[in-house]
Amino acid sequence: MNHRVTLIVFLLFFGVRDIYALPAFSRQTGKNCAVCHLNYGELTPAGRQFKLTGYSAGGYVIPLSVAGVISDTKIRNTASSINPDVALPKNGSVIPEEASVYVAGKFYENLGGYVRLTYNPVNTTPLFGSQGVQTGTKVGGDTYLDASEIRYADNFQMGEHKVVAGVTLNNAPTIQDLWKISPVNGYPYRTSNLLSAWGLGQFGPSTVIDGNLIDQVAGVGVYAMVNESVYAEFAGYTRYLSPLPVISISGPVNTASTSINPYWRLAYNYVRGADAFMLGTFGMITTLKRDRSIPGSSGGKYTDIGFDIAYQRITDVHSWSTRVTYIAEQVDWNPRAVIKRNHDTAHSSLNTIKARISYNYERQLGAHVFGFYTDGSTDNNYWAYNPDQTVVTGACNQNNSQLAFCSANGNPKTSGYGFELYYEPTPNVHVALQQTFYNHFLGGSTFIDNSSGNVRAAKDNNLTYLYAVFSY
């Protein structure tokens, strides 16, 4: 516990700033970060307007910012692993988690954005035991083009209707969203990079649109907001591979289709005084190819359809906000997936719901309370643990397995809740403590550690995440 106290003291003295409230944007507009941000990661109506109009409001400044993250991630129990130091590296250790350089701000009249290059010292490469089972992940460095966006926007008058229309170029579907749909920019506004190293998603299995295409694709979209109330966007994405060896993609080898993968967003926006309300729908159709280097990998067409609702009440002293997002995913697997016994049937489903309520006091002290639930079709060939060393099919096979943890019953059901507390004694300081509790993980109250075959309880995955972000 001493190293956590040391981390907090260090951050209080040397200061941090929310990386979503980039200093370059503040210098450009001449406004305090609190004008555009209700809390870490969440935009106010003014912030959404700044983004809608192409990040181009204000004057010209040097569009550069740098940011870094220091954190301590602790999983409750590592006893099921053959070697926790390998399967769960850096558990409970204070680490430099991330560093980024931004080119962000107004580039030209009506044209702006932010391009983010990230160095991730805990980005990972799977480690396999002598029998081919994924036993953990190598903690090593990667530099990659992180979620980035450039957009052009202009104002029009069509009869009695005021229209803002524009074009967005980005490499992470939903990053351009004004209300921040997914983990690209949505809640949790910050999650531990070590969870990828551990093969553990904070909310368990997730849909493709829910952050799984970050820097894996590139796309162009057109959008319009009519009378500050009706918003529509349509975009198309295709596979992206960096031509520069120094800039990799942040996840596994990219298998997205080189054909167009369509994305859409429709929303109704209402702002009156201190209150802001949004009701919307969004979706994407994505084709992923089989990764030939991974036994058990399958290709298929993923259709994601989501609905969300958000409310904010913002005042100088007490502010509240809430958000609920539901995503239903249907997957049509390639015929080979069933023939090769990677999946039980040619079709499967995954449904997720996430809800959050937040309170902020004078933009200094705040809290989030959140809950999540994921369920889907049972697929024993894919999710279920199989101790047979000759098996090469599905995600939980014993030869180059794609999953570090497996289901005991072939179902992906995961649920839980949590909270996050944060404190900002000055505009340059942000310290946060996030806690996640699990009721179910991968099918029930227990699941299987694929490195050992041992049973784990869902509550063994309970997470404590202490982090801070600093930038200039």
Number of continuous helical runs: 8
Task: Label the overall shape.
Answer: globular
What's the assembly state of these chains? single chain
State the low-pLDDT regions, or none: 4-20, 130-134
User: What is the first-to-last residue Cα distance?
Assistant: 29 Å
What's the helix and strand layout?
Elements: H1 2-14, H2 23-29, H3 33-36, E1 37-39, E2 42-43, H4 45-52, E3 64-75, H5 84-87, E4 94-108, E5 111-120, E6 124-128, E7 134-139, E8 142-145, E9 149-158, E10 161-170, H6 194-197, E11 217-226, E12 230-239, E13 261-272, E14 275-288, E15 300-313, E16 318-333, H7 335-339, E17 347-361, E18 365-376, H8 380-383, E19 405-406, E20 414-423, E21 431-440, E22 446-449, E23 455-457, E24 463-471
Antiparallel strand pairs: 1-2, 3-4, 3-24, 4-5, 5-8, 5-9, 6-7, 9-10, 10-11, 11-12, 12-13, 13-14, 14-15, 15-16, 16-17, 17-18, 18-20, 19-22, 20-21, 21-24, 22-23
Structure notes:
There is one protein chain. This protein has eight helices and 24 strands. It is mostly beta strands and 472 residues long. It has one domain: Porin. The strands form four sheets. A 16-stranded antiparallel beta barrel has the order 3-4-5-9-10-11-12-13-14-15-16-17-18-20-21-24. A three-stranded antiparallel sheet has the order 19-22-23, with no helix packed on it. The protein has a two-stranded antiparallel sheet with strand order 1-2. The longest helix has 13 residues. The protein is globular, with a radius of gyration of 22 Å. About 5% of the residues have low confidence.
